[in-house]
Design goal:
Strand order of the largest sheet: 1-2
Strand content: under 5%
Structural class: mainly alpha
Helix content: 55-70%
Largest sheet: 2 strands, antiparallel
Low-confidence stretches: 1-35
């Protein structure tokens, strides 16, 4: 995702003479020989097939860089739907997140017909839809959410035919506001999780917010920051994942982890379609389709960055259209089976840019690994057994990075009075309505939810004002 792409991605140091123009794709020590047979003159070719060992090593890098961000939206939506932490429904949503991240990635890397950029584009569950999905689930239920995901996915795919003509709708001014708003909306979720969980907060649990909860979140934050800034290579690139693992281990030691769901989960399961049924709620569909436009623009940006950073060229119109088709189709298919919308992940774009390795076969390996995980419910059960405070620590960092990515984009804007007025109006209305949801109480429930989501009013106002107000308004 574009707004998570601000991670500082540092990767493996090259053995002398292995790559002259690119950072190495190998570990030190016993793995220093895995680059044998790699042609440094061909690594910028998407169709170049690396030898299997370095291909697997890089593929796992891609999985580790995106894993925590991929499963987190499923946990948040499960909580919003009222599913108990660690329940079978939460395990199922995590399982679908892995399975359809892998399938959507194959749509991008392998492709079929016009579908797929056929570039190393890693797909994963999108944070951009989370504010809207929370509202839809709370007001209309999972069936309405799945119906809106399917329709929005088809709409998203159709954007591939016109994506080049609407890119100007989302300059840094608009994109920066949208991304910042997503982060600001979601940061309180992380705080509630770190303090003991959203449910306990709502029932005024007297133990909510005590140090026993915060200590687990702080372990995650401290370990993740230490890995990010005081290590290199894989340890640095997977800092948040390692922080979550550290918090999980401390949770086990302190008795905060319940393995009951892990024992009950199957070793293998094939998902059935329409797990939660399907309903078509017009307000939910409109909201999801509008956010699909934002997601499509993110994917265009990621594909462009991959082509530029990995091969030093501009992405072709065919690659941009194919990538958008794959983005939308992946979301629509996920919705049929109870999964959440997908988008391209910018932290994985950073891997391609830093290593210079453009082989789509590398990302295909990562996709296959995710698909295998998606058929093993025990893996989802292990993830869902993580104490909610541990997840909260990781979420605070992830959503804080979302805000910082948006602010970084806004820092490139020329702050004329016109642009300041667009930001002031859009952010004030969007965040203000979110802070005072009763101001929309006379609207139909789902429409009121969309208006108080924070994200949708900001995006619509920003796009419309940017298109309508004259550039020379000073």
């Amino acid at each position: 995702m574009l707004y998570l792409g601000t991670y500082s991605i540092f990767f493996f140091t090259c053995p002398a003479g292995c790559f002259k123009r690119f950072p190495s794709i190998v570990l030190r020590g016993s793995l220093m020989s895995i680059a044998n047979g790699v042609d440094p003159q061909r690594v910028s070719d998407p169709d170049y097939e690396l030898p299997m060992v370095p291909r697997v090593a890089l593929g796992m890098q891609h999985v580790l860089a995106m894993f925590a961000s991929n499963v987190t939206p499923s946990i948040i939506i499960a909580g919003a739907a009222g599913f108990a932490f660690g329940s079978a429904d939460m395990v199922f949503l995590i399982q679908m997140a892995m399975l359809f991240a892998g399938i959507a990635t194959l749509f991008q890397t392998v492709g079929f017909g016009p579908v797929g950029a056929r570039l190393p584009v890693m797909q994963g569950t999108s944070f951009a839809f989370v504010p809207i999905m929370i509202g839809v689930v709370k007001s209309s239920g999972m069936a309405a959410l799945m119906g809106s995901i399917i329709v929005a996915g088809v709409f998203h795919a159709a954007l591939g035919t016109v994506i080049g003509r609407i890119r100007h709708w989302f300059p840094p001014l608009v994109s920066g506001m949208v991304i910042t708003t997503i982060g600001l909306y979601l940061i309180p979720v992380g705080i509630r999780y770190a303090a003991g969980g959203a449910a306990d907060f709502q029932v005024n649990n007297p133990n909510w917010g005590d140090f026993s909860h915060w200590s687990l979140a702080l372990v995650v934050i401290i370990v993740a920051l230490g890995c990010k800034f005081f290590t290199r290579g894989l340890t640095s690139s997977a800092a948040i994942l390692l922080g979550l693992i550290a918090g999980y281990l401390v949770g086990i030691a302190t008795g905060a982890v319940n393995f009951g769901a892990v024992g009950k989960a199957a070793w293998f399961a094939i998902p059935m379609p329409l797990q939660y049924g399907i309903e078509f709620n017009m307000a939910a569909i409109i909201g999801m389709c509008l956010i699909s436009v934002v997601s499509a623009i993110e994917t265009v940006g990621d594909i462009s960055a991959i082509a530029k950073g990995g091969a030093g060229r501009e992405a072709s119109d065919k690659e941009l259209a194919g990538g958008t088709y794959a983005d939308g189709l992946g979301s629509a298919v996920a919705g049929i089976f109870g999964g959440l919308p997908n988008t391209s992940f910018s932290q994985n774009v950073g891997i391609v840019s830093m290593t210079g390795v453009m082989s789509r076969g590398v990302v295909t390996i990562g996709a296959i690994f995710l698909i295998i995980c998606g058929f093993v419910p025990k893996i989802g059960a292990v993830v869902s057994s993580m104490p909610i405070e541990v997840l909260g620590g990781g979420v605070i960092l992830m959503f804080g990075m979302v805000v910082s990515a948006g602010v970084s984009m806004l820092s490139t804007v020329n702050w004329t009075r016109r642009n300041m007025m667009i930001l002031a109006t859009s952010m004030s209305v969007g965040i203000g309505l979110q802070a005072v949801p009763k101001s929309m109480q006379h609207l139909p429930d789902t429409l009121g939810m969309l208006m108080t989501s924070g994200l949708l009013p900001v995006a619509v106002l920003a796009v419309v004002m940017n298109l309508v107000l004259p550039e020379d308004a000073e």
